[in-house]
């Protein structure tokens, strides 16, 4: 499955769009006001990761495919998505990164009743932000995402943004047996209490190791989304200089990534501008080298033989128009802190919250391996669980997240985007907003947001094993 969204712009339209993006961060409402109607059927299916000649792998699918359909919505236009569950177990859909009302957030037991087998549920929301998002289940998350349930969701800017092509790579990580089938053992103790379920095959839009065809001289908007259960990624585009335009759907000041590596944790998205300056017919690898000694080729940028699209490179990419996020009032902020604890530290000890778990090991048999502020919330969501903290609607929250563990944690907040202020005491530049903030071992990150969206909201690690084994909490906006 290839996601390649092409824009056919005249030179005049190209220049006008570029100028508009450079001078204005204001957002106009979408022209269309009618409700955009969509459908999703969740069911067992199969995928061929190596193409038609490869063996079929039994997976779970949205609308018959892995990944699910790439929904392209309009900023400010209402959407209604009917989800039919044809699995043999409960499911939901979480619209990751979308700032929507609480009842549509897709957390079973917290924001909605699960969608039972044979039943349907209709999600209705109006996306306020343009950008790159995705959707996935929030019921039995570890198994359902691990068996393939994920799909991209693009919210188009109210006014077109000028690129020669708009591409999306939804990255998934699979743990397969020698027969090409998904390995069992979900939620094992070692995965739960250490780095999570990292697989042995990575796919782009459901395909492994396929070339990405490009043309010399073109400028591509490449949307990267990591839908893996646990795999961290650090992508290097050999011979190219990507420019980061947005993180987690929210535009930032355009910049080249540190050391040229794009670090992408599970659930994160990064939009880049990629100028194809290679020679016609040349090939350039994209390498993932996050894990020491385990670098591999993710894909290859394969230039066709045609002459370059333009004689001279374009000027530096312009900033994307900003979304209508409320600005935190740091002079009058309520301070909250969450401390991440636990994980395997040797000797079977659950660090920071009492050592040995009775006679068992941390993470064994679905037990707790992690905690936030000393409290472990296992599974996907619970009705009646008291919030970690409560905020009045409209208040600014200055949130400190402190990682006391030896492991990496991408912390995802539902219903909001966070203004990332500092990391380990150093200011974070480029006005970055994120819904999934990656904490390295022993990191401390300070963020802020305006509590303008009422309800009980999840805050959890998006390494699915960690979430299911306790690294999850709830906060309330009244």
UniProtKB/TrEMBL annotation:
Sequence ranges assigned to domain Plastocyanin-like in this UniProt record: 52-158, 194-281, 386-477
Q: Which InterPro entries match?
A: Cu-oxidase-like_N, Cu-oxidase_2nd, Cu-oxidase_C, Cu-oxidase_fam, Cu_oxidase_CS, Cu_oxidase_Cu_BS, Cupredoxin, TAT_signal
Q: What top-level branch of life does the organism fall under?
A: Bacteria
Gene3D superfamilies the record matches: Cupredoxins - blue copper proteins
Q: What keywords tag this UniProt record?
A: Metal-binding, Oxidoreductase, Signal
* Span of the signal peptide: 1-24
Query: Which PANTHER family does the entry link to?
Result: MULTI-COPPER OXIDASE, MULTICOPPER OXIDASE LPR1
> Could you tell me what this protein is called?
Multicopper oxidase family protein
- Organism of derivation: Mesorhizobium dulcispinae
């Amino acid at each position: 499955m290839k996601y390649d969204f092409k824009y056919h712009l005249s030179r005049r339209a190209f220049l006008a769009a570029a100028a508009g993006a450079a001078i204005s961060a204001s957002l106009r409402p979408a022209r269309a006001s009618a409700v955009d109607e969509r459908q999703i059927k969740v069911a067992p299916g199969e995928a061929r990761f190596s193409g038609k000649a490869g063996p079929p792998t039994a997976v779970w699918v949205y609308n018959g495919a892995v990944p699910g359909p790439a929904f392209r919505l309009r900023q400010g236009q209402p959407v209604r998505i009917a989800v039919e569950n044809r699995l043999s177990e409960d499911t939901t859909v979480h619209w990751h990164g979308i700032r929507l009302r609480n009842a549509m957030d897709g957390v079973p037991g917290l924001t909605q009743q699960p969608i039972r087998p044979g039943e349907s549920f209709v999600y209705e929301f109006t996306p306020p932000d343009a950008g790159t998002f995705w959707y996935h289940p929030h019921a039995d998350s570890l198994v359902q995402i691990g068996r393939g349930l994920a799909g991209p969701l693009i919210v188009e800017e109210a006014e077109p943004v000028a690129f020669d092509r708009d591409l999306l790579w939804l990255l998934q990580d699979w743990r397969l047996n020698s027969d090409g089938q998904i390995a069992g053992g979900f939620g094992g103790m070692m995965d739960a209490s250490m780095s999570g379920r990292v697989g042995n095959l990575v796919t782009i839009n459901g395909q492994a190791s396929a070339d990405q065809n490009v043309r010399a001289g073109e400028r591509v908007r490449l949307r990267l989304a990591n839908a893996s259960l646990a795999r961290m990624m650090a992508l290097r585009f050999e011979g190219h200089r990507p420019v980061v335009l947005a993180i987690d759907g929210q535009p930032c000041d355009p910049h080249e990534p540190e050391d040229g590596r794009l670090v992408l944790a599970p659930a994160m998205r990064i939009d880049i501008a990629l100028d194809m300056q290679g020679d016609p017919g040349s090939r350039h690898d994209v390498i993932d080298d996050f894990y020491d000694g385990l670098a591999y080729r993710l894909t290859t940028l394969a230039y066709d033989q045609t002459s370059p699209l333009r004689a001279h490179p374009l000027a530096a990419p312009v900033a994307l128009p900003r979304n209508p996020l409320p600005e935190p009032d740091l002079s009058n902020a309520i301070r909250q802190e969450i401390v991440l604890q636990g994980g395997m530290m040797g000797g079977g000890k659950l660090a920071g919250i009492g050592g040995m778990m009775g006679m068992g090991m941390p993470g064994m048999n679905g037990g707790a391996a992690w905690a936030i502020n000393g409290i472990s919330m296992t599974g996907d969501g619970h009705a009646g669980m008291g919030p970690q903290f409560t905020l009045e609607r409209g208040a600014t929250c200055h949130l400190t997240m402190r990682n006391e563990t030896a492991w990496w944690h991408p912390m995802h907040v539902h219903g909001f985007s966070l203004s990332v202020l500092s990391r380990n005491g150093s200011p974070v530049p480029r006005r970055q907003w994120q819904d999934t903030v990656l904490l390295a071992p022993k990191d401390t990150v300070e963020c802020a947001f305006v509590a303008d969206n009422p309800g009980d909201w999840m805050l959890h690690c998006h390494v699915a094993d960690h979430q299911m084994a306790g690294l999850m909490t709830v906060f309330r906006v009244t």
